[in-house]
Amino acid sequence: MTRGRLLIFIGVLFIVSAILHVMPLWIVVLAPIWSTPVKVAGIVILCVGALAMPILMIFGHGQKRDLPALIGDVWLGAVWQFFVWSVICEFVGFIAWAFGADHGARERYVALACVVIVAGLLAGGAITALGRVGIRHVTIRLDRLPQEFDGRTIAHITDTHLSLALGERWMTRIVQQVNSLSPDIVCHTGDLADGDVARRTDAVSALGEIRAPLGRFYITGNHEYLSDAAYWVAHMRKLGWTVLQNAHAMVRIGEANLAMVGINDLTAPGNDAASDRPDIDKAVQGIPAGTRTVLLAHQPKQVRDAVHQELDLQLSGHTHGGQIWPFHYLVRAEQGALSGLSRPGPSTQLYISRGTGFWGPPFRIGAPPEIALITLRRA
């Protein structure tokens, strides 16, 4: 990034931070009739937060410093919810005023409602994000699936985003959950870890303990290209995982075959062997006609490649199911779908996981994490 673009980016970050803090400042602190010490404390907290949040995120994420990044992310999640709910509560308060509610009482009730709602959502969102990950059982029927694969299972994990908050203990717990399902195949569809590679290696290494008799398959997501994609590719291979980079691998049961296909993320820069641009034509080259196919692609919108090649099933992550409402609507608009099973093509199905971990703010509101256990069935 050039110096000019960097300055523009930093400037935009501070402007966005100011906007996010203005509404809570007005609705929660200034408009209600509070005592002077309460108002002064609220003004100081929000003004300091508006300046500190971008600095913490730039220093934390930009310099790969765990603690500043985590503090900045927590504040971002909190102030985003305060921004959203201050707008909603003010709208409801305006309706109450239109029906004759006392102005002073209305302002206080709006502020208190906003604080109570946000506090509850953040507490619940933190428990959901950091607690036990749920198992999502999904049955997918494929035309002409060989009898030998009928009833076989695929455990799908994605977006683990290993970090200071999601470390080795958390990853070990995920591995234990996956192994308890006794899947035939395990897939990880990218965004393995965030931050300093040296700090995440031990946590990622827990993935070496996952058991899957028919194979373990991994592809890169966009976040691998923010750290060291080549390192993670080499490390996952060292752990015994098959890394699919614009390539496929055949899973065989007797004479029956299932092709596991993987393509790189759309953000791959193409500057080294681990960072080739996504190439679906290269990935499927050599697959015998009539073979059923499962494509691993990090972003759901890469399904256009699957439809073009008439592949049977695509597994994706990336969306986190929106992670924190109301981001759901923005993510759906950008990716075309949010989570779950859909059929974007005549012969192509798409399953989008809500993700196993989280990125940024340690909250999940309206989008619980998941480990998907997919059972393949003959249509």
From TrEMBL:
Keyword Hydrolase: yes
GO biological process: lipid A biosynthetic process
One annotated GO molecular function: UDP-2,3-diacylglucosamine hydrolase activity
Ranges for domain Calcineurin-like phosphoesterase: 153-321
Transmembrane segments: 7-34, 40-62, 74-97, 109-135
Keywords assigned: Hydrolase, Membrane, Metal-binding, Transmembrane, Transmembrane helix
SUPFAM superfamilies per record: Metallo-dependent phosphatases
One Gene Ontology cellular component: membrane
PANTHER family listed in its UniProt record: PHOSPHODIESTERASE YAEI, TRANSMEMBRANE PROTEIN WITH METALLOPHOSPHOESTERASE DOMAIN-RELATED
This protein's name: Calcineurin-like phosphoesterase domain-containing protein
Organism: Antricoccus suffuscus
